[in-house]
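#dry-run=false #mode=assembly
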Amino acid sequence: MNKQVLLVEDEPNIIEAISFILSRDGWVVKTHSNGADAVSAVLDRKPDVLILDAMLPGKSGYDILRELRADPATRKLPVLMLTARGQVKDREIAERAGCDAFMSKPFSNADMLETVRSLASK
Amino acid sequence: MPTSRDTLTGSRIREKRIVAGLKQSELARRANISPSYLNLIEHNRRRIGGKLLIDLAQALQVEPVTLTEGAETALLANLREAATDGDLPESELSRIEEFAGRFPGWARLLADNRRRVESLQRSVEALTDRLTHDPHLAASLHEMLSTVTAIRSAASILAEPGQIEPEWQRRFNRNIYEDSARLADSSRTLAQYLEKADSDATETNAPQDEVDAVLLRAGFHLPALEGPGASVDAAMEELGAGLSQSARWLLQRALVRYADDARAMPLGQCAEAIAQTGSDPLALALRLDVDVARAMRRLAHLPDDMLDAPVGLAICDGSGVTTYRKPLPEFPLPRLGAGCALWPLYRALTRPMMVLFELVQQSSRTGARHRAIAVSQPVQPARLGQDALFESHMLIVPERGADTQEAVRPVGLTCRICPHPGCEARREPSILIASNTHRF
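#status=ok
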């Protein structure tokens, strides 16, 4: 059975591009574009890997991640954080919040695919 | 208790007497008082008014009001704030007026320094705040980077070897088209926002900025320096209050130059000549027998109603640093740093004494055309065995004629917000273009 990735991102064309790349690689891609109920979406869909944008409408990606890490059901879920802010400070915030990988926009498709694959094999 | 205004009258009398080159005994004789009484007055130990004040003013050949009023109110307020910032005890606070009266130079220096520190603190706070808390800036950058990400991902998919289904190909092509349009809009909006923030900034952080702000407020035309009663001192008193010492030095130099120009080219003669020649500095220089640079400065300082349209002026020294700027609404001049290296202003430095005459268009603005006339001239007379120092002037005249066969030179404002990707004069990347590989 193919592994599932949940992409929480609010930019439609980024969603489309990432969905295409991952689907072509054999992933089942689910998407969600609102931060407010993103935690519920994760709990419902139980993905193998979560790709989470840092700036989302409703709730920030950092807050979502902190909630997920506080819940035993999602404490070990591999999370790749995406952000338009790539400063060291932002990287540190993401790391403290508990992400496994961090990519600043814009990123290459190859790096994205490679990172998701490596997170899934952990 | 004397007011602060009264308190310093004696200091002003002393200052005027020294400037007039009078001894205390001489002034006392002229005002029919004893030298010892004048001494007490000058050291602010006696309050004066009425007839004695008028007698002293007459003896000093000044208006009485110049002895009772001055820039000290602002100075005292500034010193009080400095004292409060420094937690000075009450006993010291009560002696501020005495301090300003006895040591006016030191007091002004202290006040200037305090003002400068405060200005720098505000600039630092504003910059820090802007980088970390400016929601518009953060949102704009986030949107731009997200759009760039979408374009890059879609373009990479299309560029990969191998076939992609036509339906997906169409979708990604459409996405790239939409995102690139969005990116163009958001980058333009961001550039305008940054430009506006620059031009709206009221905090000045360099003496030249202070002088620019003073001249801008005055409308660049200074009646106090026109005609037979022209007085640089009077203009300095009116315009120089509250400036830092360095800015006052720069302003004094600018006003002396203005007064020289006005003497050489009186308003009446300028009006007659301009009625014949318009805003052409070469024709004006020939008619009034002055050099072209002086004619340019004069045109920039005339009342607006004497010309068909206001003209702009930029002056730079031999190092390219702007030493004077009078911008136009459609031909802005950068507040900080140098302008576009393609401006005739800078090119004139390589061809001294040759007048450059070009039609230019600043690309980042409305597309309005301007006539730029530039010349580089020595700033001092020829001296034996000494290289000449040059400065360059560029007069900017709005060009109303839309139909012209003359070549138009596209120029920018500053590289940071200039969209010309293949420009050979570029010295730093533009925020409007991701790379410099495109050609226009």
